[in-house]
Amino acid sequence: MHVDVLTAVEQRVLGCLIEKRFTTPDQYPLTLNALRLACNQSTNRDPVVAYDEQTVREAAQRLSQYGLARLASGHSSRAVKYRHLAEDALGLQTPELAILSVLLLRGEQTPGELKDRTERVVAWESLEAAVETLEALIERGYAQRLARRPGQKEDRFAHCLGEPASDQAPAAGIPSSAASTAPAGAAPASTAPTPARPAAAEDELAMRVAALEAKVQSLEAALADLLAG
User: Domain range spanning residue 130?
Assistant: First the structure.
């Protein structure tokens, strides 16, 4: 699996997992519902989407298969939760992850926009420091500098983890504008292939693994309390 072929849904899920780890650590790892709400936020997202739970769950499971995420559960809850593994999988530090998450969630950005939108995570010393981090991402193959369009004065950057969301087929729950305006009887427009849906057995196995992890964590916590007493 190459990270440069993530689908739009996978990009959104990964970006949300990275973002929420920094911005809402008390609620991280994320439950499936929290992850869905994060994906469907109407602020700090471009484009705005309306993914259902099944779409988000399947994307998170695929990210787990790629080594970019994993199932996790807290000591006091058996609910299945998700966390990212981008530090190890991609070999990135907090400043790089902060910028990458904004690129994943909001599309192409200028250095100034990236600096402003990551300052709650990174205390940048200057705009040049943010640019240096961008250059590091480019060297690693995770970001790219875009050619300036007519009328643009600043360079813009984008991630390299897959095609931009606007260039991919609409996800479940998002109507296609092309399909809604096509004349009656017209052949449907071609779309990008949809990844195969995980088998029900895989879903059941994932739930069982998460439940076992929760039990082990509860036992570890109980043992620690016993030893402390």
Answer: 3-164
Residues near 182 by Cβ (< 8 Å), separated by ≥ 6?
188, 189
pTM score, whole prediction: 0.72
Q: Are strands 156-159 and 143-146 parallel, antiparallel or unpaired?
A: antiparallel
Question: Could you check whether the bond before residue 47 is cis, i.e. omega within 30 degrees of 0?
Answer: yes
The answer to whether 171 and 8 have CB atoms below 8 angstroms apart is: yes
Phi, psi torsion values for 129, nearest 5 degrees: -65, -40
Side-chain-facing half-sphere of 181: CA atoms under 13 Å: 3
Select from 220, 191, 217 the least CA-distant residue to 79. 217
The number of distinct structural domains making up the chain is 1
The pair of structure tokens assigned to 229 is: 């007493």
Domain CATH number, residue 111? 1.10.10.10
CA distance 85 to 87: 6
Residue 178 maps to a domain = no
Would you state the pLDDT for residue 72? 86
Answer yes or no: is 180 within a domain: no
- Each residue's pLDDT tens digit, 99-122: 999 999 999 999 999 999 999 999
d(C-alpha 93, C-alpha 95), whole Å: 6
How far is 104 from 172, CA to CA, in rounded Å?
19
Residues composing the chain: 229
- The pLDDT tens digits for 119-139 are 999 999 999 999 999 999 999
189 within some domain: no
CA distance 170 to 219: 44
